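Dear colleague,

As promised, here are the two records you asked about, laid out in our usual form so they can be pasted straight into your sheet.

NAME FIELD: protein one
SEQUENCE, THEN STRUCTURE:
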Amino acid sequence: MTTTMTSVNDWGGRMEGHFRFQITEELNGWECFITFSSPITKINQWMGDEIEHSTDNSVHILVNRRHTGVKKIGDTLDITVQLEYSGTKPTGTAVLKNLGVDTFTVPPLPNNDGTKYNYDEVLEKSILFYAAQRSGKLPADNPIPWRNDSALLDKGQNGEDLTGGWYDAGDNVKFGFPMSATVTILAWGLLEFKDAYFASEELGEMYDCIRWPLEWMLKCHTGKNELYVQVGDGGKDHAFWGRPEDMQMDRPAFKITESNPGSDVAAEYAAAMAVGSMVFKEKDPVFSAKLLTHAKQLYDFAKSYKGIYSTSVPEAAAYYRSVMYEDELSWGGAWLYMATNDSQYLDDAEKNYQTGAAWGQSWDDKNTGNMILLYNITKKDIYKQDLEQTFKNWMPGGTGGDALPYTPKGLAFRLQWGSLRYASNMAFMALLAAEVGMHPSEYRKWAKSQIGYALGDTGRSFVVGFGVNPPSRPHHRGSSCPMMPGPCSDLNKQADAPNPHTLFGALVGGPGQNDQYTDDRNNYINNEVACDYNAGFQSAVAGNKTKEEQQQKYAIIEYEQAQVHIVKHKLPIFINLPKRINLIPLKDSDLGIWDCIITNSQLVFTDCRNNRLIICFEDGSGVRYLPLSWTPNYITEVAINIVAVSSPLDKNIVEMSISKGYIIRKIRTSKECEGLSCYKNKLYAVIGNQIHEINQEGIVTRTIPLPSDNIYYITVDKDKLFYTDYTTLYCCNLDGKVIWLFENEENKYLKGITTDNEGSIYVACHYSNDVIWVSYDGEKHRKFFTKSDGLKYPTGIQYDKRENILLVSNFSDNMAFVFEVKYK
């Protein structure tokens, strides 16, 4: 908005003028840039604070004062100035900037899954919400431009550094009990549905997300039996409406000790650290080990000194009062058992388990989660029965006094305060229960309905910055404040305008029992946000993404199978050919089987002619395919049901889940990629005339030279590298030094290569139409399967060391062969 100065009085060298703005959009803070036609010697005004002026005093920048920043449409903002000048009377213009409208946005992601809601976008934005809740010194890659360093003086009672962590909700207190519970749920979701984070390309962000509070929790554990559980006084904090960066009040820290125990919160910290150690075990072993050490100490503290933390720390009782600690002792014990396999922790978990149907799952109630964990570990009926009864109470049609009411539009309604939190938490629990075999179809359908309610099934979204008609006025201090340098106060809280900053991804509390909801910043019951609100919600979204993609990716094609006689050769092994599989192609389509592997008793083939993976069971049944947007050639098993695939036409290695049917991640390579092998959690890939060793972060850790550009197939085993060219089988160490060579003129165009448990090598010979066995030292060899047995240009070969099964695939006639191998 622009206006010119109206002069009302001029006394020669002194004058009074007015800059009047007719407000056409809600103001939630403003900045005014005033330019005079000539320098002035003095300016007085009462609407704003001058924050800058030019050296010649012709330009002045004002920002509103606390009481002048909020204006409604139709109001007039009158900035009256009294000036002193010399020479010609100045004229003036002013430009008003609305500090209540932030231009920062998060572009919507393409919905590659074709699901009703874009789960990739929900995951991205939910993780951004946690970034907006960060306290302390923010990293250089902070993704939230309106957030800066804050609470840098947070200290313990003896000066301990307690900076970091998350602000709890719409306020700026750091409550350790709900924060640690949030971390446990988020980390569990990452463990269970990691593929969803891979596929959405949010895995790195998710690791950063949960590491931030875990680092703070480690700081809080200042002694073996001493733990800080809160920073900030709730009363003083709630009396201040402003940015966390502007806080000036005292922020005391509160701890539990042997004389003032808190078994509940200590065990919850232990649970979060235990599951965190599992999450980071491979990514950061040092951090993982540190978490596990502290988890063990905190659990011992929780067991040895019993008590409820909100009794020992009454400052927490008005906000997060705990009612018991047994459920956390069971919870912490179960997670420590999962992390350590130490049966003592399982004994503790079962001893402290609370029998009967659970109220729900929340920061204070871990019973539903305990049922799932303990049933998954022990398969005991008691846990299954309690879990089934819990969901009978929660699902529509429940009877008795414990059955939940439902809103007219379908939300399971546990409590008015944060109703979506409880439904989302239980949606996540339902998905986990389905994963351990509990009524999977029914539970998943129900979980999807509850998350659908939050995302927009009723006609509006309850997630800030996502979907149709989302909340724009959440009860949240930082996002309600204008852009800097505008001041922030209760007037900003009371303003009608949307929050200046979009708090992307935050789940608001939710509707009342009759679906009523008002997007009102002053309503902290239905419209506040909180870290624990998003935890079960985000994890359930990851679970929904996993299952929906799995259902969409599979398609069935016909298959054929046949029995043939036992083939026996004079080798140090017996070969049995129980299955000859004909992968009948779709109509008007021939297959081009380039490579193959065995994983989890399933055969997987790359079909380079039709751009897909073909999957079936070892007996040839259940054939299905996964269509791809690129041409697959080489394949290797990375983990059970996880494969890596490459193509000479592409500069990517793609990791995929064949059980869930989607891409986990892509590793960009410097040149076209050919043969692949996985060994000790590292990929080995033929890139040009080198083999690249690639770690789990996608970083090349070693390059191994190759003798020619004609090497395409490789395998790595027992710290040895094997590869083939047209006529030669090479055995090298992992630095590329050749140990031995095998050549035989009868074997033409050596392709696929694999090794068995004894170190013997099997090679598919493409042009001579045979498979040869070579001893571990290269001294002996034998042809044991030939064209007369059905081989026709074989390319793929894979030995499954778990089941002693050898798979061979033809390129041209859609045939594959499964051998059973027995050692003499």
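NAME FIELD: protein two
SEQUENCE, THEN STRUCTURE:
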Amino acid sequence: MNKFTLSLIFLNSLFVSIGTANAQSLINNHRNSDIEIERKTPNVDEILQQLKLPHSKIAVIDENQQVKQQNFVWVFKDLKEVGKQPFLQVNKETEKPKTKPESKSPKEDELEDFAEVTKDTQKLEGIFTIYRHKHKNKIYLEIRPEQLKKNFLANSTLESGIGEKGIYSGMPLQDFLFYFQKIDNQIQFVVRNVNFRTREGDPQAKSVARSFSDSVLYTIPIKSIHSERKTIIIDLGDLLLTDLAGLATNLELAASPEQAYLGNAKVFPSNLELEAIFNFANAGKNSDVLPDSRGFTLKVHYSLSELPKSKYQPRLADERVGYFLTAYQDLSKDERRDPFVRYINRWNLEKQDPTAAISPPKKPIVFWIDNAVPLEYRDAIKEGVLMWNQAFLKAGFQDAIQVQQMPDNATWDSADIRYNTIRWINTVDGFFAMGPSRVNPLTGEILDADILIDGSFVRLLKNDYRQMIQPQNLQTRTSLSALVNNGRLCGKGNQKSPKSLGNLSKLATDYDLCYGIEASNQLAFGSLAMSMLGNSPPNPAQLKDYIHQYLRLIITHEVGHTLGLRHNFRGSNLVSPEEMNNPEITRTKGLTASVMDYIPPNIAPDGVKQGDYFPNKVGPYDEWAIQYGYTPSQATTTLGEKSFLATIAGQSHQRELSYSPDEDLSNSDPTVNPWDHSGNVLVYSQSQLANARRMWERLNEGYTIDEESSSDVEERFNTILGNYLQNLYYTSKYIGGQSFYRVKPNDTKGQIPFVQVPVEQQRQALMTMQKYVFAEDALKFPPELLNKLVPSRWLHWGTEIQVGRLDYPIHDLVLLVQTAVLRDLLANDRLTRIKDLELKSESGKSLTLPELFDTLQSEIWSEVLQPQGKLQISSLRRGLQREYLNVLMEMVLRKESVPEDARTLAWYKLKQLNSKLKRVNSEDEYTQAFLLETRDRIEKTLNAPLVGN
């Protein structure tokens, strides 16, 4: 074997972090081989010049444990062999960009004179001292030496918007835990990395600082340094007139730097409040709300504040109780596999009298009602806020929450971090409510909260289902779940319009953005049901009370978010359908288990006296969750509370305390839904489907409201249709369904995580689908009604005119609904789950694939399988039957991914159907042609060569 020399060059005999490890491995592996290894310490520059070998910089650690950059090179006999080594790569030489060298920072004595910088300025003192020069439109920030490297909070809020596309007044933007850092004659704005921590005294703290970087967002030149007190002056415009809040990045629009300026500035002992005004070029994008689409102005409110100085004790989270979290990795925690520490987000409430069972708090949570809220809604908002005091009593606090009215002449802004506000905004496309809070990212302590309510909630009792029946949507095959879920929720990936809230606001993803357009639809359906199911239209007082109840619920829900609570979409499953309209029960026990669900109007079945439309008290889950988060314990440390908290969380097995947030929403759990109702969703949905049919009948009977336009009939038809689809969706989830519960492995109450829907309920759900979707008369409407469905013909800004076909596409609409349900029932995930549930259930206690296929075929092809009299298949039935064939043929021809047993059953059902088709005939030409074509399609499919495995 030929010998060669491998020269390992160690720079200054220092330890090379990567190269040495690889080199040592190579030495050990070839210690007994014919390779001669030579260790050298020559002059680096000479070697590089002599060899002309590509080289690079590498981080090295010297004897003082300091990281430095050094030249580093591997030397081989043949450079072609280098790339073949998996751990040795020679970097290719690249041309350096031809850029101007960075100018060096000026020496400290070359900075501007402090007195000159602050000359002719107004001095304001507080947490920071600022100097405002009104003529130059400059604000200078003075930083004391002891404020360097100190943690502060920066919060940004969109103070003014444009009212559309997510650019809404009051939207929270970015939050930072930051510090100022001096580098030469510059100040850096640095975001602290709090995701990785160590316990006090752990030597790994030094490693954490080296391993996980903070984020330097901006470097700002120092204007001057005071000669005596050594305070530093910077121009705040260099920080706040940048894209610190992320507007340009998320809107993908460019602000005009020369037109940006700072507005109002106020300084207080613990916080600094400032405004920055930006002018944006809209690049000619169309807007209905701007006077000229080429540009608009936005105002951003910034709050810079200190971290609170309190004895707040963080509280550990439990996944059975729904709180927003502050989580980090504890690198000192090596005794467990899970390195995360999770704190719940909550306010710092302390009793005035710690020995009393119930005591007022030392510092209550105070909400201020925005002075822009219409007068007629202020009482409902106040009631919604104070409703939570019922829950805090269970935690030992009296009057924990208070409400104040913001004066019309208030000198403070709603975005001021010192005030918790309920802000009223107006949009043309928002229809949302939001209850975000700002927290200390180190502990989870809630410091500030501002609730946003879009006035369009109650201003526009209209629906948005017309878009569903547009021609381009009717031609698209879809499933029921996709059809219903599209646009129903805001946040968590749903209802994302271009440049919408999810893009603009970081907090919109960190917190549950609520309601959305579906809330407006639900409100519209409830008001319509009040009118059409009663003996007479509601009077103004009844409508006012209805809106009052709804607005009160929205506020209660959003306040729950500001208290730290997340959504609980099992919260509506409390009382039975029979109890829902009994005020003696709903006003004592409650209408729902939690107001943190999305609660639709409670519409009584036909013939039942109407009860409360919406809850008038928080539910048992809400009380229990507040107990977990706020009941004081006797423990003096966070870890010392574990057994105390485990006792409370251990009650989660109780049905009314079950918790399911956004991420637990699925197509398989019929008990977890937004906008469902009652402890038996299946029975309740059947009553609502019957209500919808009755409302369509009333619409055809000439139901009218004064001053209605010709398009109102179609809008009401679509409103009813949207509710109809939702209840079909809730019903479908029972078929092959299973419920998921959050339980601990050592739970002694016998609860298990997954529970199959009883087979009797699955069969009942299938019968409901047959009656309200697949039956001959399921979606059959009188011709008179169909000819009244007229679209709006207004053409101006803020409207969308329908062009092309103007009459209602009833065939396409009915087929869309039937196709959506059918494809949902025969979707791969449902079929796979049904097959798996056969193994997860006792024998005979599960719905099987053969039963599902047989039930569907028997109903959809009932005229052929059980012919009665002269056979004449209607056009609506032919459309459904064609779609059924399409689904089964796609399975047989392997165009759809389904379990093999399902594919075999599809083949078998086609075989059976073809046999029946040969025995029937019809005198109706439509039916004759359809039956012959169907037989031909089936036979070609059964005889087709197989594709794939």
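A couple of things worth noting about protein two: Residues 540-562 form the longest helix (23 residues). The chain is about 30% helix and 15% strand.

Best,
R.
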